[in-house]
Design goal:
Low-confidence stretches of chain B: 1-11
Distance between the termini of chain B: 16 Å
Strand content of chain A: 5-15%
CATH class of chain A: Mainly Alpha
Order of helices and strands of chain B: HHEEEEHHH
CATH topology of chain A: 434 Repressor (Amino-terminal Domain)
Helix content of chain B: 55-70%
Order of helices and strands of chain A: EHHHHHEH
Radius of gyration of chain B: 26 Å
Number of strands of chain B: 4
Oligomer: heterodimer
Number of strands of chain A: 2
Strand content of chain B: 5-15%
Structural class of chain B: mainly alpha
Shape of chain B: elongated
Number of domains of chain A: 1
Largest sheet of chain B: 2 strands, antiparallel
Largest interface: A-B, 12 and 5 residues
CATH superfamily of chain A: lambda repressor-like DNA-binding domains
Strand order of the largest sheet of chain B: 1-4
Distance between the termini of chain A: 26 Å
Radius of gyration of chain A: 16 Å
Amino acid sequence: MIIVNLDIMMAKRKMSLTELSQRIDITPANLSILKTGKAKAVRFSTLEQICQVLNCQPGDILEFRPEETDTTDETKENNQ
Amino acid sequence: MPYKTKCIITMNNTNKMQRIWVLYGLFFAVVLFCVVLFLGNIVSSEEPYRLNNLANQTGKAGLIVTDLHPTPQSRKAEEYTIDGTDNTAFITTHSFDAFISFSDKHEIYTPSIRWTVALQIFSVVAFACIFAFVVILLVSFYKAIRSGRVFNKKSLIWIRLIGILMILLSLALDTSVCIERHTARELLASTGLQVDSEFTLHYMRLLFGIVVLFMGELIHLGNDMQEEQDLTI
């Protein structure tokens, strides 16, 4: 699953949700949806604006983490 | 958002609302026309209700069975000359209606007739429910379009109910007619009249119910797409 680390980057840059939403012209509600990981998809244009404002790379904001079922299957395969 | 884009969106919504208002107007105009026509037929006691008048005149309880298939004698085409022309019309009756009167009204309510009455009551209730649900659905659609969320789960529930009731209504009506004709066949067996009591399914009613259910599934898909779009940042 994809983890959104927006709150970490916002803390590093010492920027609040409201300020970031004003800078990238997205409502605080939508930004909150993104931050809490409830979003289904992110537009490239939005990602570009976030990276520009926070001065970071997309990889700093998005992280891939395998799901728990996948890891247990891999563990079983390794044990065999 | 630029001002120009906002204006275009407002104009498009206005045109859509106008089209929707026209459709709403047509729907309720047709409904009103049907209601007036139906009440007019009841008041004027026209041909479709002749058998009811006969039942009232005889003062006996009876079973009215309509659209029975013809006897061998009535299959013969009778020849008529059209006035003012040399043309000839060949007329064959394909169905007849029967009013079977009973000396005692309690004799009518055989188990099969009870089933027929139950199915017909269910059909009337189902038809009224379908009409009510359609009105509710139209109101729901109007609110949904105004709010910008066209696909919602409430509309889906009403559409599925309408589709299921249409299918059940079709089956109930056809079954009740079949039972009625079967009863008429048994009662009229000694008269020599041959009554066709095969189960006849009205495919169009059934098909309409299935199409409505299919539209419901499309709305379900649209709702899922809309939710996904809403959660796309």
